[in-house]
Amino acid sequence: MSGEPMLVVVEDDDVFAKVLINNLAGAGFSATHFERPETAIGGIPGLARTDLLILDWRLPGMTGVDLLDRLRKLGCKAPALLLTSHDDVFYEEAALEAGAVDFISKTRSFSVLRKRIELVLAGNRRDGGVPAAMLKRGPLLIEPAIHQAKWNDNPVSLTLGEFRVTERLARAHGDVSYRQLYDVLKGESFIAGSGSEGYRANVRTLVKRIRQKFCDVDDRFAAIVSVPGFGYRWREGAPDGQA
């Protein structure tokens, strides 16, 4: 990505916004701030470039989810992070279903937010800055630009880490080891567990969650197959494996 990443922050808490933008500037990010959603709706489409949206959940007159929906209808395809004071799975699921790539509590440290931002920006670029291409593999559609997976045209509500693992498996066309999947996640401070290969248990737990989310969309889903003692592979029409 050439130059500083261009971020947009929509946040009505002036004090929080100033602290956030100062932290972003110190981390090498250029940020444009909109205090109200209506000014963001009017201003964002006219910006020369937007690499990432950072939207507050609770805004005057609408939620960040509502704002994201309006921006998508105006043609803004930049990935979005939702910031919230609500630490509840209901809000996380609502944000992900609306097309956000991640859901982050305002109580988390800036270092956590920075890692999430870096993961989103890195995920949008491959091979020295070339945008990652969409992937269609059977019923699966991977859209890297907005970190969204669809199964038979139905969105699957994956977190950023779950999306990255799904994409890694789907693009591999072969076996992917536990270690390789763990490496996809380590930028999120994914805990390795106990022992030299303790990360395997965490990867198994993550894959179970991914399978369940696809099964919630299609109870016949069976594309993630276990490779005993090694890892997983993505294969259309395969018998369901167990993590």
Quantity of strands, as a count: 16
Structural class: alpha/beta
Question: Under the CATH scheme, which class of the largest domain?
Answer: Alpha Beta
- What would CATH call the homologous superfamily of the largest domain? Response regulator
Catalogue the unreliable spans.
Answer: 126-130, 187-191, 238-242
- Number of continuous helical runs: 8
Major sheet strand order? 2-1-3-6-7
Strand content: 15-25%
Helix content: 25-40%
CATH-assigned fold name of the largest domain: Rossmann fold
The domain tally reads 2
CATH architecture of the largest domain: 3-Layer(aba) Sandwich
Report the average pLDDT across residues.
83
Keywords summarizing the entry:
single chain, 243 residues, Rossmann fold, Arc Repressor Mutant, subunit A, four-stranded antiparallel beta sheet, 8 helices
Task: Tell me what the structure shows.
- This protein is of the alpha/beta class.
- The chain has 2 domains: about 5-125, Rossmann fold (3-Layer(aba) Sandwich); about 135-235, Arc Repressor Mutant, subunit A (Orthogonal Bundle).
- The protein is built from 8 helices and 16 strands.
- A 5-stranded parallel beta sheet has the order 2-1-3-6-7, with helices on both faces. A 4-stranded antiparallel beta sheet has the order 10-11-12-13, with helices on one face. Strands 14-16-15 form a 3-stranded antiparallel beta sheet.
- Strand 12 and strand 13 (about 155) form a beta hairpin.
- The protein is globular, with a radius of gyration of 18 Å.
- The N and C termini lie far apart (about 35 Å).
- About 35% of the residues are buried.
- Residues about 125-130, about 185-190 and about 240 have low confidence and may be disordered.
